[in-house]
Amino acid sequence: MGVAHSLVLEQTQTQKLIMTQELRQAIAILQMPAHELLLYVQKQVAENPLLELEESDTQWELPEAEPDWAEYFRDSDDLGFVPKSNIFGEGPSWDNFISREHTLVEGLLAEWGLIARDQKERHIGEFIIGCLDEYGYLRCCVNEIAVRLQQPSPEVLRILKAIQQMGPIGVGARSLEECLLLQAESLGLLTPEVKQVITNYLPDLAQGRFGHIARELGLTLPQVQAIRDTIRLLDPKPGRKFDDGEQIQYITPDVTVHKADNEYIILVNDSVGNRLHVSDHYRRILTDSQDVDDQTKKYVETKLNSAVWFIRSIEQRRITIYRIVEVLLKKQRPFFDNGIRYLRPLTLREVADKIDVHESTVSRATANKHIQTPYGVFPLRVLFDSGVDSVNGQGMAAKSVKRLLADLVSKESPARPYSDQKLSELLAEQGINISRRTVAKYRHDINIPASIHRRRYEQAKA
User: Are 203 and 210 in contact (CB under 8 A)?
Assistant: First the structure.
């Protein structure tokens, strides 16, 4: 016998957040740093005719009489004025162009063009240079290049050797060992012992196994250490010093904290928002014009709502950033007074609770933004840091602990560097309780090698 099922219609009331286009835009604006916001505003002004952006608040007064500009510019010697027709012919002056550094490939190609003796050498050399990576290493086999160019392998190898002698030395190497050997030979540092260590013992040297190398080569520990110091003079990535062709990015602080008379003033970089307003011309269409059809009015109303929401979103971004920095200024006052060593532990949640917003709002408002302080420009997220316990109960930010750790290492004896356990004990004496594992983690974060790599061996006196 089957079970009877009844169909019942029920109404339930629930609440849920719908991500409208306007809300998505407001969230995106909150996340934008100052330079991105300016570009986005310019894009919106171009797309929405109701938005207007004042170019400048400066009002220029025109002279009552039109000056004689031809007479004014006639004396080109005094003004530095260069006529369009110059010794180089028609066209703009080269002084108007912005230069940049050559990339590695560009520099090598230019130099090889002066060295190559004929078209064949030029072609092979250009192909080899085109196969170099950003660090200057050749990532193709000589035999592969020979097959590709239909040239004898010895000829390709000969040209590769010529390229390896061009600056910077080490470019064109096919391995780390070859790169270091080329540089050591060029600098006159390639002794038999240095050559043996580079060729056969680089992994042991990296792991600090000085004793093993000394026994294998019949050297003393100070001698192995001297070889290590010599190898450290060489550059394992000779091509990285060149411009990679990418445009340099400049930082525009999103907020500035300025000190004046022992008080701090917060300035949010929102000049673009102050210059943005709704066009009066289109506003009058909705209020005064009687001859405008309904379709046009509807279009203007849609664009007006979009413009108003856009301006409010920018203003809300400014208010949110200001309130966050206001809390940061109170919580991190020792940092603003004395520098990064005095950072205190602080989380996004603590700031969010203070200004009564969700933690994700603080996260978005501080992402990819920079703050200018009396001690330099920092990412805004620097002021948020995990912390460790201290004796006084206030806690200390991890960045501050790393600074203290670096200071301790800088003062240690080179012959007897501190172990991680000893560093933990020394920090405990200063009221900072962290484990040996945490010391090792912090030491790794600030690129301090282990004690075995920091140790210096002294040469025995005769």
Answer: no
Reported as a single tens digit per residue, the pLDDT across 305-314 is: 888 888 888 8
Whether this model's pTM surpasses 0.70: no
Residues whose CB is less than 8 angstroms from the CB of residue 4 and which lie 6 or more positions away in sequence, other chains included: none
Q: What is the DSSP string of 105-168?
A: HHHHHHHHHHH--SHHHHHHHHHHHHTB-TTS-B-S-HHHHHHHHT--HHHHHHHHHHHHTSSS
- 224 vs 217: CA distance, rounded Å: 9
More confident residue, 116 or 462: 116
Beta bridge partners of residue 52, listed in sequence order: 277
Amino acid at 112: W
pLDDT at position 158, please? Answer: 92
Q: Where in the chain is the domain with CATH 1.10.10.60?
A: 388-454
Name the CATH superfamily for 388-454: Homeodomain-like (1.10.10.60)
The predicted pLDDT at position 89 comes to 47
One-letter amino acid identity for 51?
A: L
Residue 416: partners with Cβ closer than 8 Å, 6 or more residues away: 455
Residue-wise over 132-170: b if at least 16 C-beta within 10 A, else e? beebbbbeeebeebbeeeebeeeebeebbebbbebebbb
Amino acid 27 reads: I
Question: Rg for the chain (alpha carbons), in Å?
Answer: 33
What is the residue type of 208? G
Residue 461 pLDDT exceeds 60: no
The pLDDT, as a whole number, for residue 177 is: 92
What pLDDT sits at residue 5? 59
